[in-house]
């Protein structure tokens, strides 16, 4: 079965009046159905750009992008609307941007349901169900201004879930929150992932968040560079320990980005020596001689 | 805590009820726009009715349908009674009115008729003063209704016959004035051809003002002509008893019948006018047959007066359309700004809901619905208010504009809800030269040019019968303003870019930020600039047009009067002139002698001209455009000629006198002479062979306009005193002020002169509102900027400087463009349209620019801009950097 989210050589160029910004420069990525994945990367590396493309709000300049079987480059306006309505949900960093300030939690959810023509009589029960899932049923009739930031983000997740999307995108959902609230919001996202089987993709700067995710992707300069897979192992004494393995993305022509720390640790620069072993490749630093240059 | 709603209508209501103030403002503006567009055609019709009644009222009895013809008298009846003889004719004439269908039929009163014999000399009895009497006998079945016998009795029936026995005297009744003029009283016997007339009674009209006497003046008063040294001639008519008519068949058969249908114009409405004119024309087009080979030919000035009035009303409504459509344009631009502000408020919600999967249709539909909720009640209220205020019936087409205005609101809501971009829009990176914009601008310019072309080909008025807002006229100024505005917006970044390049190198932060913002992130959108340009245009246009019209009306009145005071009399003697010139307050006085049939010869040929002799020095003092011609030029007599004469060489002959044409740029008309005239000084009268011809026209200029009435009275007395008894009746005095007051009493002129300042004031108010709305709409961006500026430590002066940059360039450019357009538009209007029908006179008025008015208008706009800017600055200052920067996050 093909991956739930797949991007191949995705390029997004913003251009106007002589200024050209390459936000994504050939990004490749695959995420399986039901996965909970984190994306990290320096500011300006293209994370938000990627997410807005995946949630159908922006169109890539080139490449391929598919989410749940929808080809994001070949969608008609009508398909795009249906895609936004039923396939994806999202949560943004700014708590105020996710909810309409003059509507209560239930009304915010009901607005999303109204957009998808959900019959009126099922709306209230659906809203209550979602708020209960987020553990905030008591906030049903409050407006955002009457909630804490963490509560707002959880309502935002409930709104994003309103039309039962297959994928949830969250762009720094905990960016404006303290540690405790961040944990609550992350837990809520994990609940969604576990209980509803929704594929979740979180962009985050928060180490505490990424440390709890099985798979973390790193973007550098608009391209996937490395990824970390974490697994929990239980030893013979019953102690749990987390193991992290670092992976790098090899592109179609064999290019590879080594993590910064590796480069620094071994002072790898300019030219490295490669050695092919039976089951792996070795990379060695070289002392560059003048005459070979 | 409120209970949450989950139904779609409830949710929509929630969305709509947020930020209700903006919606209320838009609703108010919509109500005003709908009110204005509903009330304007009704007010025009009312104005038309007023004008019509005013004009027809001035016409008095001339508006009646009058008929001339001959009476048919059935011969061969044995001893007919008056009723048998005249009854059929009377009946037919009554029918001529009662058969008229409405609306004309409703205005027609009971017809009257008088049959008269041919005129014959009546010989006065011995002892009466010597006079020649030319007399007609008149018969009127209802003659006793409007008179009372002051002495003697009503005439009795005559037993004689004009083809047999004529021995017995025929009784007649004469008016008191006739009796006095002839010097006879009751009982007097007059010889009248073969007949003898006996004055049985003397009567006086019970109401001399009754329209009857206007139609039969000869029966109220004689007309007396009494040249010096000749026996006076009295021309008059006398009633006989209708019962005498059967004996006078032959005499009346040779006479004439006059009849008239009185028209009561006080209930005429403008809406019926065209139909009434047609009916009148139909009535007068064919002869009206009376019994026994009698007939009447009807005529009336009624239809022409209606047409003239209609032309004037149409011209007026065209002018109003020009001024009001601009106003409506500003109003709609302001409404659009207001809607923009509302939609901008909803933008975050629209973007969010759009991102959650709402289709464009859903979003636009929701906004259109909100527009409908805002506009519908407002439109209904506005229209209802207009209908209640001016309950004038109008046809369906008058509803087109109000409905369009109201319907445009939801549309604008939907359009402004436009395509969304979830990502924050960076306006500086949006390319300005979109192809759509170029096409739209090209279309706009093309449409403006086309409208201008059509207007200049067609003229101001579409057709004489249409009253109301003419779409072409309404569109032209708005299109022009929009096109010019689009061009200005295209061009105005160019100089700013130059400024930007200059300041980039320098170290003026204020200039850099200000210019960069003005070029890259203009605060005022095209709608605001359009509102500003059009608003200023309307202010300037209205004031220039107002000045032009009022000066035009004044000039036409002055031209018609010829001077402050004009006196006409059979003779104005040199002594009289000298006395009047010496009156207190008289600046100059000139008596004109007009001699038609003079000949001016030059090498090119001969022209028939009217020679006008006067004291050219005095005339020059009154009319500086006319030359002073009192000094010989190389032995020849200097003359001036009217500009419509074919080119005449400098040297010419007037009769036998050698003259030299002095002044080529003379006006078309002189007071009292409209064309083909030659002006010479009266001191050369004898050399021109025109000595001793009396002047009959006196022009007086006064020092103080307030003294006109006093001086006019003294001048009249002076002229009258110098004339013989008979000559006194010929004296008429006209003052320019009087003519002007007459012109101003026209409801249409008064209406236009009243409407233009209102239009200017309203445009100013709307410009203020547009500016305020645009400045407020930019509030968030400005607060953010002020926050940033304060964080980086800009002082107040620098902050203010940057904010001045925000609106100053746009406001200045808009004012310049608006003033230019406002000044140009009157020239376009006057070149496309002849306003002379409107102001009167025969010289088309050209635009008159009163610098004071224009400067005042511009100052008002500037003050408005400064106030709006200062308010924005004050509001911006109230916010702390923390708040504004957080706001900027969004
Ligand atoms: N609408 C836009 N127009 C032009 N350039 C843009 C636009 N949006 C993003 N960019 C540019 O694209 C690049 C990637 O931006 P993006 O917002 O994806 O970064 P990010 O990884 O989300 O950063 P951060 O962690 O700060 O949110 C940046 O250099 C940014 O300046
Ligand atoms: Mg980002």
UniProtKB/TrEMBL annotation, chain A:
SUPFAM superfamilies: P-loop containing nucleoside triphosphate hydrolases
Chain segments annotated as transmembrane: none
GO terms assigned for molecular function: ATP binding
Pfam families in UniProt: ABC_tran
Keyword terms, alphabetized: ATP-binding, Nucleotide-binding, Transport
InterPro entries, per the entry: AAA+_ATPase, ABC_transporter-like_ATP-bd, ABC_transporter-like_CS, ABC_transpr_LolD-like, MacB-like_ATP-bd, P-loop_NTPase
Sequence ranges assigned to domain ABC transporter in this UniProt record: 5-246
Alphabetized SMART domains for the sequence: AAA (SM00382)
Record-given protein name: ABC transporter ATP-binding protein
Species: Homoserinibacter gongjuensis
Automatic annotation (TrEMBL), chain B:
Alphabetical keyword list: Cell membrane, Membrane, Transmembrane, Transmembrane helix
Species in which this protein is naturally found: Homoserinibacter gongjuensis
TM annotation in the entry: 12-36, 318-343, 363-390, 396-417, 438-460, 472-492, 527-545, 754-781, 802-832, 852-876
Domain ABC3 transporter permease C-terminal: 758-880
Location(s), subcellular: Cell membrane
Protein name: ABC3 transporter permease C-terminal domain-containing protein
Family according to the record: Belongs to the ABC-4 integral membrane protein family.
Keyword Signal in annotation: no
Any matching Pfam family: FtsX
PANTHER family assigned to the protein according to its UniProt record, in alphabetical order: ABC TRANSPORTER PERMEASE YTRF, MEMBRANE COMPONENT OF TRANSPORTER-RELATED
Membrane topology: Multi-pass membrane protein
Record InterPro entries: ABC3_permease_C (IPR003838), Macrolide_Exporter_MacB (IPR050250)
Record keyword Zinc-finger present: no
């Amino acid at each position: 079965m093909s991956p739930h989210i797949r991007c191949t050589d995705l390029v997004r160029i913003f251009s106007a009046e002589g200024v050209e910004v390459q936000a994504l420069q050939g990004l490749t990525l695959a995420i399986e159905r039901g996965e909970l994945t984190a994306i990290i990367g320096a500011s300006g590396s293209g994370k938000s750009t990627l997410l807005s493309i995946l949630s159908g709000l922006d169109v890539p300049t080139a490449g391929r992008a598919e989410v749940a079987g929808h080809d994001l480059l070949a969608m008609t306006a009508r398909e795009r609307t249906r895609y936004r309505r039923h396939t994806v949900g999202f949560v943004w960093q700014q708590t105020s941007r996710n909810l309409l300030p003059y509507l209560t939690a239930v009304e915010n959810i009901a607005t999303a349901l109204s957009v998808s023509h959900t019959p009126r009589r099922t709306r209230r029960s659906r809203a209550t169900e979602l708020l209960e899932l987020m553990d905030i049923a008591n906030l049903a009739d409050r407006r955002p201004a009457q909630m804490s930031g963490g509560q707002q983000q959880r309502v935002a997740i409930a709104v994003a879930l309103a039309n039962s999307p297959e994928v949830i995108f969250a762009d720094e959902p905990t960016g404006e929150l303290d540690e405790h609230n961040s944990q609550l919001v992350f837990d809520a996202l994990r609940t969604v992932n576990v209980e509803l089987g929704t594929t979740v993709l979180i962009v985050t700067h928060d180490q505490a968040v990424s440390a709890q995710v099985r798979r973390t992707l790193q973007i550098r300069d608009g391209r996937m560079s490395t990824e970390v897979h974490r697994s929990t192992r239980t030893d013979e004494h019953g102690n749990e320990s987390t193991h992290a393995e670092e992976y790098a993305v090899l592109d179609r022509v064999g290019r590879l980005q080594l993590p910064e720390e590796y480069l620094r640790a071994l002072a790898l620069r300019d030219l490295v020596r490669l050695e092919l072993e039976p089951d792996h490749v070795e990379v060695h630093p070289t002392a560059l001689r003048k005459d070979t240059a | 805590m409120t209970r949450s709603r989950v139904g779609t209508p409830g949710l929509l209501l929630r969305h709509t009820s947020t930020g209700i103030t903006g919606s209320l403002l838009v609703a108010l503006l919509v109500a005003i726009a709908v009110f204005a567009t509903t009330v304007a055609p009704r007010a025009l019709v009312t104005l038309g009715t007023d004008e019509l009644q005013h004009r027809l009222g001035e016409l008095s009895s001339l508006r009646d349908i009058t008929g001339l013809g001959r009476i048919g008298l059935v011969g061969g009846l044995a001893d007919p009674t008056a009723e048998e003889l005249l009854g059929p004719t009377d009946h037919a004439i009554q029918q001529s009115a009662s058969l008229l269908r409405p609306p004309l039929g409703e205005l027609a009163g009971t017809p009257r008729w008088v049959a008269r014999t041919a005129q014959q000399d009546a010989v006065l009895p011995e002892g009466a003063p010597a006079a020649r009497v030319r007399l007609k006998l008149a018969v009127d079945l209802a003659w006793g209704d409007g008179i009372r016998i002051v002495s003697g009795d009503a005439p009795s029936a005559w037993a004689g016959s004009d083809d047999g026995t004529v021995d017995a005297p025929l009784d007649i009744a004469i008016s008191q004035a006739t009796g006095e003029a002839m010097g006879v009283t009751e009982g007097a016997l007059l010889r009248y051809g073969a007949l003898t007339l006996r004055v049985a009674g003397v009567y006086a009209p019970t109401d001399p003002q009754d329209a009857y006497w206007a139609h039969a003046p000869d029966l109220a008063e004689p007309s007396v002509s009494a040249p010096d040294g000749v026996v006076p001639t009295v021309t008059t008519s006398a009633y006989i008893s209708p019962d005498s008519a059967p004996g006078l068949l032959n005499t009346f058969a040779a006479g004439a019948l006059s009849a008239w249908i009185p028209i009561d114009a006080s209930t005429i409405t403008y809406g019926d006018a065209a139909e009434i004119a047609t009916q009148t024309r139909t009535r007068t087009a064919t002869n009206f047959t009376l019994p026994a080979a009698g007939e009447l030919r009807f005529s009336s000035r009624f239809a022409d007066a209606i047409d003239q009035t209609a032309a004037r009303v149409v011209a007026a409504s065209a002018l109003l359309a020009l001024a009001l459509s601009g106003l409506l344009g500003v109003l709609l631009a302001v409404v659009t700004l207001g809607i923009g502000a509302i939609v901008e408020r909803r933008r975050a919600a629209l973007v969010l809901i759009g991102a959650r999967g709402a289709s464009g249709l859903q979003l636009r539909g929701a906004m259109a619905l909100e527009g409908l909720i805002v506009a519908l009640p407002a439109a209904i209220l506005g229209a209802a208010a207009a209908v209640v205020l001016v309950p004038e019936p109008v046809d369906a087409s008058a509803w087109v504009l109000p409905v369009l205005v109201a319907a445009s609101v939801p549309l604008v809501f939907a359009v402004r809800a436009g395509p969304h971009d979830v990502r924050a829009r960076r306006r500086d990176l949006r390319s300005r030269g979109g192809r759509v914009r170029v096409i739209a601008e090209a279309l706009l310019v093309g449409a403006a040019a086309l409208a201008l072309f059509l207007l200049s080909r067609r003229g101001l008025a579409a057709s004489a019968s249409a009253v109301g807002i003419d779409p072409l006229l309404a569109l032209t100024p708005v299109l022009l303003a929009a096109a010019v505005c689009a061009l200005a917006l295209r061009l105005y970044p160019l100089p700013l870019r130059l400024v930007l390049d200059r300041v980039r190198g320098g170290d003026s932060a204020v200039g850099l930020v200000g210019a960069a913002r003005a070029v890259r992130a203009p605060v005022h959108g095209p709608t605001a600039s359009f509102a500003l340009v059009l608003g200023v245009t309307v202010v300037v246009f209205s004031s220039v047009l107002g000045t032009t019209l009022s000066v035009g009306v004044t000039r036409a009145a002055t031209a018609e009067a010829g001077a402050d005071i004009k006196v006409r009399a059979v003779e104005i003697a040199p002594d009289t002139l000298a006395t009047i010139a010496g009156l207190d307050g008289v600046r100059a006085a000139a008596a004109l002698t007009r001699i038609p049939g003079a000949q001016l010869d030059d090498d090119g040929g001969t022209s028939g001209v009217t020679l006008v002799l006067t004291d050219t020095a005095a005339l020059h003092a009154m009319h500086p455009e006319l030359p002073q011609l009192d000094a010989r030029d190389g032995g020849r007599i200097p003359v001036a000629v009217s500009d419509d004469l074919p080119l005449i060489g400098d040297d010419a002959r007037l009769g036998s006198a050698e003259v030299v044409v002095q002044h080529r740029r003379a006006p078309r008309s002189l007071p009292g002479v409209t064309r083909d005239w030659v002006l010479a000084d009266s001191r050369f009268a004898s050399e021109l062979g025109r000595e001793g011809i009396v002047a009959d026209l006196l022009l007086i200029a006064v020092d103080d306009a307030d003294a006109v009435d006093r001086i006019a009275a003294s001048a009249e007395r002076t002229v009258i005193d110098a004339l013989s008894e008979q000559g006194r009746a010929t004296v008429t005095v006209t003052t320019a002020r009087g003519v002007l007051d007459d012109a101003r009493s026209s409801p249409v002129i008064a209406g236009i002169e009243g409407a233009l300042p209102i239009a200017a004031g309203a445009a100013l108010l709307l410009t203020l509102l547009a500016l305020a709305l645009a400045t407020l709409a930019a509030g968030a961006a400005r607060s953010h900027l002020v926050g940033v500026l304060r964080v980086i430590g800009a002082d107040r002066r620098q902050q203010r400087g940057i904010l001045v940059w925000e609106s100053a360039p746009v406001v200045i450019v808009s004012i310049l463009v608006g003033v230019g357009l406002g000044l140009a538009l009157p020239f376009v209007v006057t070149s496309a349209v002849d306003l002379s029908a409107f102001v009167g006179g025969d010289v088309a008025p050209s635009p008159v620019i009163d610098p004071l008015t224009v400067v005042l208008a511009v100052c008002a706009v500037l003050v408005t801009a400064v106030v709006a800017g200062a308010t924005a600055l004050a509001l911006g200052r109230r916010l702390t950097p923390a708040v504004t920067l957080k706001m900027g996050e969004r």
